[in-house]
Amino acid sequence: MRLRTWLGGTVGLASLAAASLYTYRPRLVASVAPLANVQAALGGLEPTPVLAGVGAVLTLYAALRAWQPFSRDASPTDGSAAARFAAARERPPEFVYGDDRARTAAAMDATVTGAVDGSRDALTTTRNALRSTAVAVLDRADGVDDAEAAVAAGAWTDDRVAAAFLADDASYPLLSRLRSWVDPAAARERRIERTLAAIEERRGRDE
Prior knowledge:
With 207 residues, this protein is mostly helical. The protein has two domains: 3-72, no CATH class; 77-206, no CATH class. The chain has helices spanning 3-24, 26-31, 33-41, 47-66, 81-90, 101-117, 120-139, 147-153, 160-166, 174-182, 184-206. The relative contact order is 0.11.
């Protein structure tokens, strides 16, 4: 379990505890400076529902992250992300590099790692490469008039996370946005993995 997952759960439980104190022990809250300052920091908002809401969200997310099917290990793991990316690119002729495939995979591995770690340039490179691959796969599919437009609009897959990752207007599902807030690296890795899986699924469906 990652540190941020543990921290999210701890903060969530603390927020729930603080909400209970505001409800049942208001005098105690007034005597504890950090808690007494919360209400002022909220700008006049009632602290109980705010703290309860934040606590519930963080606690739920931490619990889901700790649950094995929701953890990073539940993502597609048929080889490294870079290896699977190289495989996804292998079929379209314009993306085959002959004897340089091993070096290409190694370079992509470093790029994907940088993207997961938060490098904007690496994330942009990874996204653009995956987008080009998705377009190439769709170009070979029947019933797709404009592959680039389909990818840009997020209409090429039913996976909302993968669609948003490659779309011009990235509108991620709520759970994906929550994951990005609590654990940005895990969110970026999952988005790349989900996109790879969607490309693989689409390629297999159209063959």
